[in-house]
Design brief:
This is YtzI protein. This protein is mainly alpha-helical. It has 2 helices and no strands. It is rod-shaped, with a radius of gyration of 26 Å.
Length: 57
């Protein structure tokens, strides 16, 4: 029974490690996508006053 307890403990540690790794990957992916979204939004944002008074040649 002692070997079974060691095996279950090692399996539990591996599962917890994999869950933490997946959570970190998921959160970093969400963070990068939101950061790129805001960067694109700020890049696309135009000055409305300049747009109103802009003269098209």
């Amino acid at each position: 029974m002692d070997l079974l307890n060691v095996a279950v403990s090692v399996f539990g540690i591996c599962v917890i490690t994999i869950m933490v790794f997946v959570t970190v990957l998921l959160c970093s992916g969400i963070y990068i996508s939101i950061k790129d979204l805001f960067k694109q939004y700020k890049h696309d944002e135009k000055n409305p006053i300049k747009e109103i008074f802009e003269i098209n040649d």
